[in-house]
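Collaborator request, handled under Task 6.
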Amino acid sequence: MAAPTMEQSATQFIDYLRDVRQLSRHTLSNYQRDLVSLQRYCEDHGKGSAEQLVEADIRTWVSQLHRRGLAGSSIQRSLSAVRSFFNYLSRVQGRPRNPATSVQAPRRPRKLPKTLDADQVSRYLSFDEDSVIARRDRAIAELFYSSGLRLAELVAVDINDIDPHSKLLTVTGKGNKTRTVPVGSMALQAIERWLQVRPDNTADEDGAAALFTSSRGQRISVRSVQARLKVQGRKSGMLQDVHPHMLRHSFASHMLESSGDLRAVQELLGHANISTTQVYTHLDFQHLAKVYDAAHPRAKRRKRD
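Structure tokens returned to the collaborator:
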């Protein structure tokens, strides 16, 4: 008995999804579109039935989808549909294995957050400290860039968390993990100026302990910090909105470009895995090329005799 054609198997699967699984029209349409795509691949490559498809065919099909510009998430959805299709065939036709099981969609590249160069940071941090709020906002921005804190970490900082003599700050990061990070002299000076005018009247015990407080005497909120940094960006003439993550990324980027010490930057940022740091930061590749040319024995040019 001849094996069912790819079209027949796909139709049988869609009927099963509609009648037994009772999936929505939208979901059925997505499944059908993905199977039609695979069916066209079969026609182009002389594969008459699903039984003739092997893992190499699925990989080639995925590569075609990728070259057509499909996003990684769309390819992953198509792969998921095809895996379900072959799982169904294994139950009703006794197919021994699923050729799509080990095939993965191309990973979608993670977008790096925008960063400020050193000159932009200097311009941004040129605050006019003409009010209590301005002193606080300057101290917040300086601490972000000085120590590469996450937004939640900065908001949670208490006055006693900073040791001005050792110039160290203890913060609590993700998973309630604590780490100690250095605080630069400019940030310490800005914090000291803020503490000179920080209101003594606070709303509660948490506000009394907090390093940064609102005009109501409460610990400053995440949204307030985001809004204030954006306001300062516009005052300083930034062409883009400045947000906490941008200052954290600028800190990491500048530290890595200057030191080249990925492990140290990992610890400063509080990343559990160094792979996160590799994605989060970006190197100055021209600088790397210069280091390579100067250091690698096979990269050095011989002087002419």
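The cover message to the collaborator said: "The radius of gyration is 29 Å. The chain has a mean pLDDT of 86. Please let us know whether this matches your experimental observations."
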